Amino acid sequence: MSKTQPGPPAERAKGGASGQEAPRNGSPEGSDAGTTFEFGIFDSFDQGDSTPGRVIASRLDFAVEAERAGIAHYHVTEHHGTPLSVCPSPNLFLAALSQRTAVMRIGALVHVLPAYDPLRLAEEIAVLDQLTGGRLDVGVGSGVSPYELGYFGIEAGQARARYAETLQAVTAALTTGRMRHAGTLLRDYDVELSVGPVQRPHPPLWYASSNTATAAWAGANGVNFVGRWNDGGFVPAARAYWDARRQAGKAGPAPRIGTAAHVYIGRTDAEAVERFRKANDVFARQLLKLWHDNGNHNADHLYDTDRTMANGNSLVGSAATVAARLTDQVSRAPVNYFEATLAFGDLTPDEAAANLAAFAGTVMPAVRAAFGARTAGDGSAG
Q: pLDDT tens across 205-263, in order?
C-alpha cells in the first residue's frame, strides 16, 4: 500500500476529517462491523512482465472476480514515476471499476494528499461516490517517497503539514457542500461544490500505518486502519486503536481495523514458496527502483523475501498453511479485517485468479470461523 509517514496527523485535521463516523452503506456484510470479519484486496498495479494496458485491463477483470468471491473492499495504490504502478491516477481506475461492480466497496489506499489540489480531489471523491452509489472508501496519507513528492514540487519536510491542511479542506467541503478555506500552505478557497457525496458527512476514511500513536488517532476519530503484522508488532497498535475509540466515546458500527499482506497459495508449501520467491523478487525490484535510482538502499531489507515470510507480512504456502497462519494472527489481535495482495510481480492473470480462488475457498471460511470463536466470549471485535 502507499505508506504514510508514522504518527498521527496534525490536530487541526481532526474535526473535519472524522468528527462524525460515515455510514457504511453498501457493505456486503451489513452494518454491524463489530461482529463480522471482512476481506479486502490491495492492488499496486506493478508492471511485472506485462504491459501497462494489459495490467490495467486484467485488474478490472480480477476485481470483478473478487466481488463474486465475496471480497468486500478493493483498494488501489497511488505512485508516480515508478514501475511499481502503471496506474498513477487511482480515480480513473476506480471510475471504470464503479461500472463493473455492484456491491464491493472500492477506493484508494491511499490518496497522497500533498500531491492534490484539494478542490479537484473533493470534486472527484464526490463524483466517485455518486458513480458507486455510496460504495467509496477514501484512503488518506502524506506519502512515503520523497522522490515522488518532489515530482510535484513538494518538499518532504512539508508533506505532513500539507497533508493535514488538505485533509481538513477536503472533508469540510464534502461535509458542508462548500470549500471555504483560508490557506497556510495551500491557497485560499471559497467555492460551492456542484456535486456532493452519497455517504454523509463524507465517505469513510482509511489510513495505512502500523504506528501505535497513529492507531490511537484513527480509533479516536473513527478512521478505518490497516497495517502490517510485523511479527506481532501490530497487536499493541490494534489494542491502542480500540482503547482510544472507547475513551473517545464512539458509538455505532465499528470501523475496520486489520493487517495487510502479500498472499500466495500453491498446491504445496514448497511449490508456493518457490513461485512466491520469483514473484516477490520482481515486485521488490519495481518497488525499490526509484529509491535505487537515487542511491538509497535503506529499505531493501524490508522487502527481503525470507524476511517478509518470517515476520508474517507475507503469507505463503498451501491453502491449509496460509489459513492456519492467518487464523493464528486473527486469534491474537483484536482485528476485524484483512487485506490481501493476490496479484503482484510476474504472476499471470491466471495465477492471480487461482490465488484468489484458493484464498476465497479455504482461507476466508477458516478465518471467519476463528474470528467467530474469538468474539464469542466478548461479542465485539475489540
A: 999 998 999 999 999 999 999 999 999 999 999 999 999 999 999 988 899 999 999 99
Angle of helix 319-332 relative to helix 364-375, nearest 10 degrees?
Answer: 20
CATH topology classification for 11-28+38-375: TIM Barrel (3.20.20)
Q: How far is CA 183 from CA 114, 166, 188, in A?
A: 13, 9, 5
CA 32, CA 310: separation in Å to the nearest integer? 34
Helix, strand, or coil here: 303? Answer: helix
Domains of the chain, by residue range, sit at 11-28+38-375
Residue 348 contacts by C-beta under 8 Å, 6 or more apart in sequence?
A: none
Q: How far from the centroid of its chain's Cα atoms is residue 235's Cα?
A: 18
Contact 260, 73 (CB under 8 A): no
Segment 260-270 mean pLDDT: 98
As separate numbers, helices (DSSP H) first and strands (DSSP E) second, the chain gives 13, 11
Contacts of residue 267, Cβ cutoff 8 Å, sequence gap at least 6: 318
For residue 7, how many C-alpha atoms fall within 13 Å in the half-sphere facing its CB? 11
Q: Using one digit for the tens of pLDDT, what is the confidence trace for 95-142?
A: 999 999 999 999 999 999 999 999 999 999 999 999 999 999 999 999
Residue 295 cell numbers, joined: 542511491
Give the torsion through C-alpha atoms of 102, 360, 382, 44, to 10 deg.
Answer: -70
CB atoms within 10 A of CB 272: 23
Asked if 373 contacts 281 with a C-beta cutoff of 8 angstroms, the reply is no
Length of the chain: 382
Chain centroid to CA 272: how far? 25
* Partner residues linked to 106 by β-bridges: 74, 136
